[in-house]
Amino acid sequence: MEISLRTPFPIALVSLFAATIAATSVSAQAPPPAPTTGVLTLLTVKPDVQRPDLMKVMPGEVRDTVKLYLDGKIAQWFARGDGRGVVFILNCATVDEAKALTDGLPLSKAGMASFEYVALTPLTPLRMLIAEPAGTPRP
Q1: What does the pLDDT look like over 95-112, one tens digit per residue?
Q2: CA 132, CA 125: separation in Å to the nearest integer?
Q3: What is the pTM of this model?
Q4: What is the DSSP annotation of 107-124?
Q5: Does 21 fall in a domain?
């Protein structure tokens, strides 16, 4: 495989992964599944919620969210660029654990928000970059 200095980075990276996969022994055991290290949680305020109703719930929502942050449950939080809610990266080992946290928030209890959850894991394709070629003796 030849990668020149003019090859765009994404193409070079894909080529490197492909070469690494080809060099890996077919008989090698699959690595164990990657552990969930966090949960990306998207909170979206439902479109039919009226602003005055939302504002009645927000003081409690902010208070409870700050408590989760101070308890180490929220690793990062962001406003959504579309203005429709927030994004949390929760320190949870499962989506169910994240759901249990968000179910306790006032917006969730009032039925004013919906949530989406994505389990986050380490970038496991990196294992291919550190794997020793088949038949290489270990010192």
Answers
A1: 999 999 999 999 999 999
A2: 14
A3: 0.71
A4: HHHTT-EEEEEEEE---G
A5: no
